[in-house]
Amino acid sequence: MRFRFIPAVLVFIAFSSCDKTVEPIPSYLRIDSVMLKTNIGQGNSIHEFSAIKLYVGGDFLGQFEIPCTVPVLQEGKQKVSIIPAVRLNGSKSQYISLNTLAIFDTSYTFKPGTITSAGVPLFQFKSNANVVWTEDFEGPNSTLVRLFSSKADTSFISSEAFVLNGHFAANTRCMKIMMTDADTAKLIDMASFNFFSSIPTDGSDVILEFDINSTLPVQVAMIRRNSNGTQYLPYVYIVPTENKWKRFYINLLYELINQPGNTDIKILLSPQKSAETRGSQTTLIDNIRLTHLK
Questions:
Q1: Domains of the chain, residue spans
Q2: For each of the chain's 294 residues, which pLDDT tens digit applies?
Q3: What does the CA dihedral 122, 126, 132, 135 come to, rounded to 10 degrees?
Q4: N or C terminus: which one in the chain shows less Cβ crowding within 10 Å?
Q5: Do domains 22-124 and 129-293 have the same CATH topology?
Q6: What is the CATH number of domain 129-293?
Q7: What is the CA radius of gyration of the chain?
Q8: If DSSP codes are grouped into helix, strand and coil, which group holds residue 160?
Q9: Where are the beta strands (DSSP E) in 57-205?
């Protein structure tokens, strides 16, 4: 009996030629920037939405830092939903979606191989969003007040240059906190004038946001008051911002969850100077907003 040997490479080519799978050609959705629109009592429109979560045709495509160009495999007219996300506690890697903002819903027509611009998605607060506190220091009085400081240190409303990561460049009225030179450690406690009541204690997000420009570390804290007593709770420690304005979004839920229903809170922002830090020091605070869902 005679055997015929077929080279293995020919067998491989034969089977390979049967695979006719064609990769789909995506289209692309381009998002360069987004905007915030506010109503009376909701504060101003300054924000730092650093990323978006994207749904196309009901499918979740992922979370993307802005600006972004996102590949889309769906074709034709599709419903698109965009959700804003912010960096939590100043982190560069941890994001949180703001549940007080309505989803931006629209539709775009996608054609393979083309780029579709999303324009500028516009976000607004939901009808059931509760904007508990806003302070941009544009009025005659301040709801951020000094609780404690040495006699030589001061705080007052001042007009200062403002720019946030290349956006919103303008002069702004803000709280200016000045600490004189000393060879001892000291701090200035700046606090909300009021205690805020009816704060959720069921694990819902409670978001404190503000802009800060400080040569000193700043301790963000709360005074929590309820039937269990009154406690001072340090929360987030902000390092000096290197002469730049930075925006922080802080979720206060971790010290509120499972607290009694009569809990109310006072917010503190406290610049802190060590004994080793010399020379006069300045902290600027602006655009405060405290929100949660009703």
A1: 22-124, 129-293
A2: 343 444 444 444 444 445 567 788 999 999 999 999 999 999 999 999 999 999 999 999 999 999 999 999 999 999 999 999 999 988 888 999 999 999 999 999 999 999 999 999 999 999 999 999 999 999 989 999 999 777 789 999 999 999 999 999 999 999 999 999 988 899 999 999 999 999 999 999 999 999 999 999 999 999 999 999 999 999 999 999 999 999 999 999 999 999 999 999 999 999 999 999 999 999 999 999 999 999
A3: 10
A4: N
A5: no
A6: 2.60.120.200
A7: 26
A8: strand
A9: 59-65, 68-72, 76-87, 95-97, 104-110, 115-117, 122-124, 129-135, 144-148, 154-164, 167-179, 186-187, 189-192
pTM of the model: 0.89
Architecture of domain 22-124 in this structure? Sandwich (2.60)
**Residue type present at position 163:** V
Residues recorded for the chain: 294
- For 182, the token pair is 């000393």
Name the amino acid, one letter, at 115. I
Helix or strand or coil: residue 84?
A: strand
